[in-house]
C-alpha cells in the first residue's frame, strides 16, 4: 500500500493565513480532507487546543469547521441571495433564537456576508450567470454562515485568472486579520503578489514536509540549504522547480530529497510556538464540548428544503418545453387511438391505450429522476458533510416538491387524450380514476429513479439498469403475453 501522508506536522493560528503548497500529487487535498474529517486515516492523530480528537469529537469538529471544496457545488438555478439564505435557514439554530429573532438573524448574516465578500451587485443574479470568482465567493460565503473560527479551502484560486485570484486572496486575508479567522488554504502555484500575502507556508513533497514556518523566512531557509532563489524570480515558482515531479531529473530528485532530509533535521531541533485556544463557533463552544449534530429541527429542515425544491422546480413546472411535449404526446396518442367504440372489438385498443399511458408515465418519472439525481447527489454529499440536514428530511421534501409537476403533466395528457380515445360510456368517474392511476405511475417511476440514481454513480449504468427494469415490467404486465410459464407466474405481481 502507498503512504500518502507521512509525519505531517504544523500549526495554524487565529488571524493568520496558512498556505499549503506542493506539486500535484504531493498530498495537499488528502491532508485537507483528513484535517477536516472528510477522509479516514489509518495512523496518526489530530489535536485541537492540545486535545486529541476521538471519533465523536471529530464529528463535532466537522460540523463547526468550514471546508470550502475546490468545486463550486450549488443548485445553479438559485440566485446568490437564495443560496445564502437557504444555507442560513439550515445552519442557524432554531432553538437558541425565537422565530422572529431568527429571521432577523438570518437576514443580517446574509447581508453581512454579501457585503464582506463583495457580492451585493450579483445578489439577485442566478448562480449559473455568475463569473468564476463570484461563484467561488458564494462557495466561501455559504460556509461563513455559522461564523466558524477555522476555514479550510482546497485550491480556491483554481480556474481563476490572476486578478480574480488576487482579489479572492485579499478577501481571505481580511477574514483572518480583521475577523480573527484561522485560514488554511491549499494552493497550487500562486502569482508573486498573492504568494507574498500568506503568513505561513507548509510545503509538501510526496506526502512529506519539506518546509513549515513563516513565509518570509522560507527565502532565507532555501539559501541556507544551498538553493537560493534567483533575484526577481517568483519564490513560489522556485519552490515548484525544486520539487516538481513531472521530469525526474537528477537535479530535481537531489533537491527534493535534500530538502526533505534538511527539514527532518531542523524539525528535531525546533519547537512550535504555543497556539492560543480556538473557539470553534460563535457560541463559545470548544472542540471537546458535545453539541447537537444538527442545528435545526427536522421540521425546520423539511420546510426549508421543500421551499428550496419548489423554487428550483418552478423552472420545470412552468417550462414551455415540458408543456409543449405533454400536449403534443397527448394529441398524438389521441389521434392514434381516436374515437374507440364501446364494443368488444375495440376493447383491445382501449386496453392498449391504458397500458401505454401507464407505461409512459412510469418511464417519464423514472428517467427524469435518474438524469437529475447526479446533480442532486453532489450537492447532498457536500451539504450533509457539513451536517446541514437529515437525509429523511431531504427525501420527504424532494418527494413532495415533485408532486405539482407530476400532477399537472398527467392531468394535461389525460384531459387531451382520454376524451379523444374513450367512448361516451366512459364517464367522468373513469377519467378521474385513470388520471389518478397515471399520477401513481409517475410517482412509482420517480421512486425507481431515485433508487437507481442513488445506487449507481455512472449515469449511463443507471440508464441501462432503468431500461432493464422497464422492459421487465412491460413483458410481465399481462398485455403482451396472456399465458406466462407457470414457473414465472409469481413474477407478474411485481409488475
Automatic annotation (TrEMBL):
The chain crosses the membrane at residues 317-338, 350-373, 394-416, 428-452, 464-488. It comes from the Eukaryota. Its main location: membrane. It is a multi-pass membrane protein. GO terms for cellular component: plasma membrane. Residues 1-231 form the ABC transporter domain. SUPFAM superfamilies: P-loop containing nucleoside triphosphate hydrolases. One of its GO terms (molecular function) is ABC-type transporter activity. Coiled coil: none annotated. This is p-loop containing nucleoside triphosphate hydrolase protein. The lineage of its organism: Eukaryota, Sar, Stramenopiles, Ochrophyta, Bacillariophyta.
Amino acid at each position: 500500500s502507498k503512504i500518502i501522508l507521512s509525519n505531517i506536522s504544523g500549526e495554524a493560528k487565529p488571524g493568520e493565513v496558512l498556505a499549503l503548497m506542493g506539486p500535484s500529487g504531493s498530498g495537499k487535498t488528502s491532508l485537507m480532507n483528513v484535517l477536516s474529517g472528510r477522509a479516514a486515516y489509518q495512523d496518526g492523530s489530530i489535536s485541537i487546543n492540545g486535545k486529541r480528537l476521538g471519533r465523536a469529537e471529530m464529528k463535532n469538529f466537522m460540523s463547526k469547521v468550514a471546508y470550502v471544496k475546490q468545486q463550486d457545488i450549488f443548485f445553479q438555478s438559485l440566485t446568490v441571495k437564495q443560496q445564502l439564505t437557504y444555507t442560513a435557514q439550515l445552519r442557524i439554530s432554531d432553538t437558541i433564537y425565537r422565530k422572529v429573532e431568527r429571521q432577523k438573524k438570518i437576514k443580517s448574516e446574509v447581508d453581512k456576508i454579501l457585503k464582506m465578500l463583495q457580492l451585493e451587485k450579483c445578489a439577485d443574479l442566478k448562480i449559473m450567470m455568475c463569473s468564476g470568482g463570484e461563484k467561488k465567493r458564494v462557495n466561501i460565503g455559504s460556509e461563513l454562515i455559522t461564523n466558524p473560527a477555522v476555514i479550510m479551502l482546497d485550491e480556491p484560486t483554481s480556474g481563476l485568472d490572476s486578478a480574480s485570484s488576487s482579489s479572492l486572496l485579499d478577501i481571505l486575508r481580511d477574514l483572518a486579520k480583521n475577523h480573527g479567522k484561522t485560514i488554511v488554504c491549499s494552493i497550487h502555484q500562486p502569482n508573486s503578489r498573492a504568494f507574498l500575502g500568506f503568513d505561513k507556508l507548509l510545503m509538501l513533497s510526496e506526502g512529506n514536509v519539506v518546509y513549515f514556518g513563516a513565509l518570509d523566512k522560507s527565502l532565507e531557509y532555501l539559501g541556507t540549504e544551498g538553493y537560493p532563489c534567483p533575484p526577481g524570480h517568483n519564490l513560489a515558482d522556485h519552490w515548484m522547480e525544486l520539487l516538481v515531479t513531472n521530469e525526474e531529473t537528477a537535479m530535481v530528485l537531489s533537491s527534493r530529497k535534500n530538502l526533505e532530509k534538511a527539514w527532518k533535521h531542523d524539525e528535531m531541533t525546533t519547537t512550535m510556538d504555543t497556539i492560543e485556544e480556538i473557539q470553534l463557533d460563535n457560541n463559545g463552544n470548544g472542540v471537546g464540548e458535545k453539541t447537537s449534530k444538527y442545528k435545526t429541527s427536522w421540521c425546520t429542515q423539511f420546510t426549508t428544503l421543500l421551499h428550496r425544491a419548489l423554487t428550483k422546480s418552478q423552472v420545470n413546472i412552468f417550462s414551455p418545453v415540458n408543456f409543449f411535449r405533454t400536449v403534443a404526446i397527448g394529441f398524438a396518442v389521441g389521434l392514434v387511438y381516436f374515437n374507440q367504440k364501446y364494443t368488444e372489438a375495440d376493447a383491445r385498443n382501449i386496453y392498449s391505450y391504458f397500458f401505454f399511458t401507464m407505461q409512459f408515465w412510469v418511464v417519464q418519472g423514472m428517467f427524469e429522476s435518474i438524469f437529475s439525481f447526479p446533480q442532486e447527489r453532489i450537492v447532498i454529499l457536500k451539504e450533509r458533510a457539513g451536517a446541514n440536514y437529515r437525509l429523511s428530511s431531504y427525501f420527504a421534501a424532494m418527494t413532495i416538491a415533485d408532486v405539482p409537476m407530476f400532477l399537472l403533466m398527467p392531468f394535461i395528457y389525460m384531459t387531451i387524450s382520454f376524451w379523444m380515445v374513450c367512448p361516451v360510456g366512459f364517464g367522468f368517474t373513469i377519467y378521474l380514476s385513470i388520471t389518478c392511476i397515471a399520477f401513481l405511475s409517475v410517482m412509482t417511476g420517480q421512486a425507481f429513479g431515485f433508487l437507481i440514481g442513488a445506487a449507481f454513480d455512472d449515469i449511463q449504468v443507471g440508464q441501462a439498469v432503468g431500461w432493464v427494469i422497464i422492459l421487465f415490467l412491460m413483458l410481465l404486465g399481462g398485455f403482451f403475453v396472456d399465458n406466462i410459464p407457470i414457473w414465472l407466474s409469481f413474477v407478474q405481481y411485481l409488475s
